[in-house]
Amino acid sequence: MLRPIIYGTVWSPPSCAVRITARAIGLTLDLREINLLKGENHSKEFRKLNPQRTVPTLDDNGFILCNSFAIMTYFVGKYSKSDTLYPNDLHKRAIVDQRLHFSSGNLSVRMTDAIKPIFRGERKNVSAESDQLVHAAYDILNEFLSESKWLAGETYTLADISCSTYINNFEILFPIDDYPNISKWMGNCREHLPGFEQIVTTGLKQLHQTMDQISKR
């Protein structure tokens, strides 16, 4: 059987999250880089694979799946020997799902909306309104983490993997110094999430290089 193929972008938080999930369950991936800034996700070949034109996109021996959360839960269901990352227990899984929806519907949306004008060359810095919205999301996340070591309990799950990649990659724009629970949790993520430092550090370097190039236009 061929390795599952992931079409992703090295600095993309969802792409990083999928790779960390794979590392956590011992799954080796065939990584294919898609350069978003060059518009490679709009190519005819990629549109045929994924009409949404988003990364990451999975090709698991002909089974095509888009959206990082769908891919992460699929990986756990098919390849993991444990349900720790995505529990079978209904109540525990519901909490993980809720935190994942917070990541996609709140944290990531606000961060993405804040940085889009910068990537488009329309602004040099994050607007005050966008900054306020992101920090409002931080307030919620900080409160979540007042209840337990990890976002959904006392062990890390897919929720921690997802949220931490966003914060790590964009912390330079949205510092977490004023959020003690988030700061402590991010330290735990960097220490305990398999492959976290290696995967996100590589992506972060490229992201900073990309932002520097954009700022000089």
TrEMBL record:
<dbReference type="InterPro" id="IPR004046">
    <property type="entry name" value="GST_C"/>
</dbReference>
<dbReference type="InterPro" id="IPR010987">
    <property type="entry name" value="Glutathione-S-Trfase_C-like"/>
</dbReference>
<dbReference type="Pfam" id="PF13417">
    <property type="entry name" value="GST_N_3"/>
</dbReference>
<dbReference type="GO" id="GO:0004364">
    <property type="term" value="F:glutathione transferase activity"/>
</dbReference>
<dbReference type="InterPro" id="IPR036249">
    <property type="entry name" value="Thioredoxin-like_sf"/>
</dbReference>
<dbReference type="GO" id="GO:0006749">
    <property type="term" value="P:glutathione metabolic process"/>
</dbReference>
<feature type="domain" description="GST N-terminal">
    <location>
        <begin position="2"/>
        <end position="83"/>
    </location>
</feature>
<dbReference type="InterPro" id="IPR040079">
    <property type="entry name" value="Glutathione_S-Trfase"/>
</dbReference>
<dbReference type="Pfam" id="PF00043">
    <property type="entry name" value="GST_C"/>
</dbReference>
<protein>
    <submittedName>
        <fullName>Glutathione S-transferase epsilon 1</fullName>
    </submittedName>
</protein>
<keyword id="KW-0808">Transferase</keyword>
<feature type="domain" description="GST C-terminal">
    <location>
        <begin position="89"/>
        <end position="217"/>
    </location>
</feature>
<dbReference type="InterPro" id="IPR004045">
    <property type="entry name" value="Glutathione_S-Trfase_N"/>
</dbReference>
<dbReference type="InterPro" id="IPR036282">
    <property type="entry name" value="Glutathione-S-Trfase_C_sf"/>
</dbReference>
<comment type="subunit">
    <text>Homodimer.</text>
</comment>
